[in-house]
């Protein structure tokens, strides 16, 4: 992850941007740590044993509260313009969301749409299993029930079906995000993708990679009856694709353009072959949209979403800081038992992350105990 200066950019790296970016990183990491340590035992350890639905609702609310810091940072502090186009998505839907993968930070920008729809805490990802091992954030990914994949279907299929089947209750909020390309776009990967397409009679694409269809079909097959729609997001940047550090220090992007298509679930074919063809057609449309964006500097039908409320962003930021400040005081300046508590929670969460232990319910525990007795 490097910081690359672009002569067309109006945001040059300065000492002030470096200090501000580092300060924001400290805030993000410290707030994430305190939320995990103090809320996980109640929301996941106790509440989930009693009621999965209320546990997920609570986790969703707290996750949305914390995650709201990022759009606030992007749009209000870094002054990144996020411009939506295409269709207007309704609020409160359960959706499967697909997007192109231009760079290492594409996964962050659906948050700006989700916040506007009141669904920020509903987000889950299908992501590389190696990310689940990250300290602090990997802990959170597991607690939030993100779906880890190895990119080998024989390993991924049973895990995906097992986890997806637990998301079928329509009462549980869900925005499940999938990047069908499976990796971020580079010119080298594009050449390989184009060569493969030519050799196999598939569409030759210039701005996206050929999508992988099995994971997308697995999501549809399992969740179809509980979903309202598929949201197809096409993401583009001015003046170039940003890195994570570009985001942190506010160097790039100056503009993020997100084109939204809403496809009702009933309009997507059921069979795996037809779903694969539908996804391929969708990525051909993405490729054309990106070509038009390169030529024109914008997507068609802009202005479908309003700007974020600065007041609401500051209220959310204040709430997160007050909660984190309270927990920080209890940890470092209060009874020694709080230090013992934090140490025990960190030990448990690190252990659960290393050994891939997922949150479970009282029913799950009873089933495991019954199987153990039968084996004994």
TrEMBL record:
* UniProt-listed GO biological process terms: CDP-diacylglycerol biosynthetic process
Query: What stretches pass through the bilayer?
Result: 21-47, 59-74, 313-332, 338-357
* Catalytic activity as recorded in UniProt: a 1-acyl-sn-glycero-3-phosphate + an acyl-CoA = a 1,2-diacyl-sn-glycero-3-phosphate + CoA
Which pathway, per its entry?
Answer: Phospholipid metabolism; CDP-diacylglycerol biosynthesis; CDP-diacylglycerol from sn-glycerol 3-phosphate: step 2/3; Lipid metabolism
Sorted alphabetically, which keywords does the UniProt record give?
A: Acyltransferase, Membrane, Transferase, Transmembrane, Transmembrane helix
Phospholipid/glycerol acyltransferase domain ranges (all copies): 95-217
UniProt cross-references to Pfam families, sorted A to Z: Acyltransf_C, Acyltransferase
> Keyword Signal: yes or no?
no
Q: Name one GO molecular function term.
A: 1-acylglycerol-3-phosphate O-acyltransferase activity
InterPro entries hit by this protein: Acyltransf_C, Plipid/glycerol_acylTrfase
EC number(s) per UniProt? 2.3.1.51
Assigned GO CC terms? endomembrane system
Top-level taxon of origin? Eukaryota
Which family, according to UniProt?
Belongs to the 1-acyl-sn-glycerol-3-phosphate acyltransferase family.
What name appears for this protein in its UniProt entry? 1-acylglycerol-3-phosphate O-acyltransferase
């Amino acid at each position: 992850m490097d910081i690359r200066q672009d002569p067309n950019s109006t945001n040059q790296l300065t000492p002030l941007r470096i200090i501000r970016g580092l300060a924001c990183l400290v805030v993000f990491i410290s707030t994430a740590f305190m939320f995990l340590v103090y809320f996980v035992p109640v929301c996941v350890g106790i509440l989930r044993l009693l009621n999965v639905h209320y546990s997920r609702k609570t986790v969703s609310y707290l996750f949305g509260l914390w995650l709201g810091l990022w759009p606030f940072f992007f749009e209000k502090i870094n002054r990144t313009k996020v411009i939506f186009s295409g269709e207007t998505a309704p609020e409160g839907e359960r959706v499967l969301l697909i997007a192109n993968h231009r760079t290492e930070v594409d996964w962050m920008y659906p948050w700006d749409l989700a916040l506007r729809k009141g669904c920020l805490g509903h987000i889950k990802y299908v992501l590389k299993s190696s990310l689940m091992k990250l300290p602090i954030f990997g802990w959170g990914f597991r607690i939030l029930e993100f779906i880890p994949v190895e990119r080998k279907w024989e390993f991924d299929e049973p895990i995906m079906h097992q986890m997806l089947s637990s998301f079928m209750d329509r009462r549980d909020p869900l925005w499940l995000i999938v990047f069908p390309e499976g990796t971020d776009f580079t010119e080298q990967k594009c050449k390989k993708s184009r060569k493969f397409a030519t050799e196999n009679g598939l569409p030759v694409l210039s701005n996206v990679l050929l999508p992988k269809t099995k994971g997308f079909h697995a999501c549809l097959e399992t969740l179809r009856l509980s979903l309202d729609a598929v949201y197809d997001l096409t993401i583009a940047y001015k003046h170039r694709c940003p890195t994570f550090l570009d985001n942190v220090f506010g160097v790039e992007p100056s503009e993020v353009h997100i084109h939204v298509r809403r496809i009702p679930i009933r309009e997507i074919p059921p069979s795996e072959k037809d779903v694969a063809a539908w996804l391929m057609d969708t990525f051909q449309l993405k490729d054309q949209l990106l070509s038009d964006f390169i030529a024109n500097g914008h997507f068609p039908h802009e202005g479908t979403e309003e700007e974020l409320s600065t007041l609401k962003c500051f209220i959310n930021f204040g709430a997160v800081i007050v909660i984190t400040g309270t927990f920080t005081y209890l940890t470092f300046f209060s009874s020694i038992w709080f230090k013992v508590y934090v140490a025990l929670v960190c030990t448990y969460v690190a252990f659960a992350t290393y050994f891939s232990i997922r949150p479970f319910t009282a029913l799950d525990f009873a089933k495991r105990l019954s199987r153990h007795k039968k084996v004994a």
